[in-house]
Amino acid sequence: xxxxxxxxxxPQPVRPVQPAVAPPVVRPRPYxxxxxxxxxxxxGVPGGHGDRVAPIHVSAGxxxxxxxxxxxxxxxxxxxxxxxxxxxxxxxxxxxxxxxLEGGTEALVVGSGQAAITTALLGLLQAGDHLLxxxxxxxxxxxxxxxxxxxxxxxVDFVHDHADPAAWRRLLRPTTRVLFAESLSNxxxxxxxxAAVSGVAHAHGVPLVVDNTLATPYLLxxxxxxxxxxxxxxxxxxxxxxxxxxxxxVVGTGFPWQGRAPGGDLLFPQLAEPSAVxxxxxxxxxxxxxxxxxxxxxxxxxxxxxxxxxxxxxxxQQGVETLSLRVAQHCRSAALLASWLERHPAVAGVDHxxxxxxxxxxxxxxxxxxxxxxxxxxxxxxxxxxxRRFIESLQLFSHMTxxxxxxxxxxxxxxxxHAHRTPAQRERxxxxxxxxxxxxxxxDVEDLQADLRRALVAAELVTPHADSLEGAAQDGAA
Length: 478
Ligand SMILES: *Cc1c(COP(=O)(O)O)cnc(C)c1O
Fold this sequence. Notes:
The chain is of the alpha/beta class. The protein contains 19 helices and twelve strands. It starts with a helix and ends with a helix.
């Protein structure tokens, strides 16, 4: 007898009289984001003991039932796990959840955000191809494209005016195979016009890959605006607690991977041409629309080997379950602090898309109605000495290069993340000598404001401006 039947019986509901007219068909309402972040992808949690949470499967490989099953799993004719470099039950549960949250059909998790970008793009590019990327990029991505990809014979151009579709179109080449951009860049908070740039990509027959790390799927789902692939550093908001490194590639639907260039050449021969490991068939023959995702998992990630550990997958999964709550608080506090900082006399400028002064303000209202993110650049009037004193005077903000943590963080980009770039390049990226990057955490905003106020007063003492100092003192007393 099951536990269910052993329960005392409940009063039976009175059966309603059959209505004469059939009731209207009510479509089930899709679950909201917060419901999905705690439930999506649960079906299929292999819970031999009724586990409610996807357990951490720390097993390098998985036993075959028999010889026939071993062969069938290798050929892909039978579903099931084989070896954790390809797939693992814990990482698979995270993949289902992240695919649902981004509105994609499937996802592939890997060991870091850098690994996600590498995997997504090496699934599309080969020697002789051209990558067209926004100029407003994470420095790790820029280095990967300019140095590592260059050594593979992959050429890259950067579009500075990324809000202008014509600027993208001008730099297209016959060999361009992918467009790449961040939905929300840092430190300047440029918002991508995803629909316009995906239109440029699609007119050229190629996909748009979007790094959605700073926006998170709670604020923006690029696939719904025309992007074809989304990548994340899960080390940031998705994990959210500054513990695990991770990355994810989420794939959308409908991209025609069998496309050809005007001269008739296949745009993606690695997907469309027969492959020796597939017994002379192609990834497209075997998987149709899913060809890119299958190739990325089995022929890119499984070979280059950037595996996410099941333990880190568990940590990211735990983080994802509170994503919307954290991001809402991060954004609320960041917007309040941005508008207060912008008016502070010690501050020369603030880059945050919630501000009317931001060149991205209108795009933020269209693409980011739930909030404009929580990583902002604050440029101090006193230049580098003021920035140094400011950072060293902060108590709640941790001085480190990371973002999207529940804790508030601060860094001086000109002497750290952007130190290797020329002064002119730094200026173009919005990184001035007095710029500090804040990643606003979930602490009480009054406490963060008090910490910042104290540090601003200290910064002004380094480079006193008679009138602004007075303003800061008044502000400090308020
Ligand atoms: C941090 C970051 C990355 C790299 O992610 P890791 O997990 O550190 O490898 C890529 N893109 C953006 C926008 C990031 O902020």
